[in-house]
Amino acid sequence: MRVEQTRTLKAKLFNPNARKEELLNRSFRAYQQALKDGVERGIETMTDANDLVVQYDLSGYMKNALKKHIPKVVKNGGKDVGEDNALKITNEGVNFDYQQDNHHKFYINLPSTWQRGGYWCPIEIIPNQESFYHKLLYKYINLGEVQVIRKDNEFYVHIVVKYEIEVRNPSECTTQVGLDVGDNTLVAGCSYDGVEPMRGEIWSGNECKRLRKEWHTVKKRLQSRGSEKILNDIGDNIWNRIDDIIHKTTREIVEYVKQFDEPVIVMEDLKYIREKMNYGKYMNARLHSWAFRKLQKQIEYKAVGEGIPVVYVNPKNTSKECHHCGQKGIRKGNLFRCTNDGCPIAEYHADLSASISIAKRGRESPLKKTEGDDLTSHGARLTVPQDSTSEVTHTDEEVSYAS
Ligand SMILES: [Zn+2]
Fold first, then answer.
1. How far, in Å, from the CA of 336 to the mean position of ligand 1?
2. Fewer CB within a 10 Å sphere, N or C end of the chain?
3. Does domain 170-364 have CATH number 3.30.420.140?
4. Tens-place pLDDT, residues 268-311
């Protein structure tokens, strides 16, 4: 089946000269003023936004992007109107070029109302995204919205690209790989090919847990002193570290899944996943469900990017039932004990056992569409959620997910 994927390429405008910088800054000023005015007037429709933006000295491509953006920001309660906001441009207004002999091989053409035909800027790209630019130039993939971001007197571009990839139909897959996203164990994975479970693997949740505990402690201490600013900074830092763990782990997981023959990833439907959460002493519910969701979403995104389909199953009792005989057993910490005398499973790692049950469910139960999600088991779209930050760094090859 064909699945549409969206990816954000991030690049830096390389040393724009004074003239180009001035053109950019002028566009930013006009764009932000228009956005601010639109929000202040509470404009909620594209028609009204259109009437507003035509009054500003902006490229038509920026106006077009802005008239879609203003109603969204207004409906969102007026958030997102800062000095360093992104400058959005519709795809028709942006072009790319490739100069093989130059140090910076890729160039972007940005529109400007003050310069006919816009102006070209070399861009510093993220090396492992190079193939996307070649595909863009040859129109193998489609360009979506482009944003220019101004940060610390540097300019960056976020380039959305859309393309279809071939993902194996889940019903044609021979190996189900069950992934149990959890607490003690961040993720437990095991494959099932209809005969026996194989190559189980565990990704520890210790580091995430330690960070949550740290957050809990810090929060308690600082809240009592009323140091909200420090608290927020520390919170950001902790969340970023958890973010890094999630990125690293999900990359490893997709590599792990790729070793199997015609794999399909099976995970538990998020709709029910709250039931199995163990709200322990250091639990921060928001942080926790955020991490759960993010883990699953990133596994899904990365897997589909590799042509591996993902399906979801009902998680009811996956951690209570024996993966072999299906009887309810006893779970103590990380250990599952099967109470069925006739079953060869005496004791088993509880999360691994759950991942096998999940894999089996993915094989035996009809595949179902997951809640509020764009990926269905029968050919559908998968889009990347919006960036949670507009920060660009050159090592940042991943798209951040907001939730
Ligand atoms: Zn059993």
1. 10
2. C
3. yes
4. 886 665 555 554 544 455 556 677 788 888 999 899 888 999 99
